Request: fold
Amino acid sequence: MSILLQLFVSFFQVGLFSIGGGYAAMPLIQAQSVDIKGWLTLAEFADLVTIAEMTPGPIAINSATFVGMKVAGLSGVLAATLGNVLPSCIIMIILAKLYEKYSKQTLMKSILENVRPVVVAAIFTAGLSLLQLAIGSITMGLGSLDLFAILIFVLAFIVLNSKRVQVGPIILLVIGALVGMGYAVATGSL
Reply:
């Protein structure tokens, strides 16, 4: 199978099964790009998430674009992005028609209510993987933990959940990037 077809099929599967939006897609993108196909390392996947989050647009599409570009250039971008978007377009057309027809039925309401916890679990799982990568492996002991990264995580978490401090995620990302650059300069790790 050609690499373009592999990209299309892989991201078609991601688009088809990532119920709940972009963050719910991240475990599927990780599985396809890192675990199954080996197109990215886990560190590159963490960079992908960071870049996809910082750029405008849906995170799953940005991720498909990133992987497509890395694997096969511009034609890879088209294959991966089209593969990611096409299932949503098809499914939304079908669901809009079905919802219009059956929205008042109890079965439809029950299905929607019971899918929500699965989506939250998928997002939580992706978040835990990224947290472990960002701060170091908790299972490997305290020596492998990055205390500076833990401090940044805790501060960002507090700010994002604070009712007093109203800093949006975009500003926080910019601040995080500037702090990261300053830390790299200060520690000489450039």
Summary: DSSP finds seven helices and no strands in the chain. Residues 146-190 form one domain.
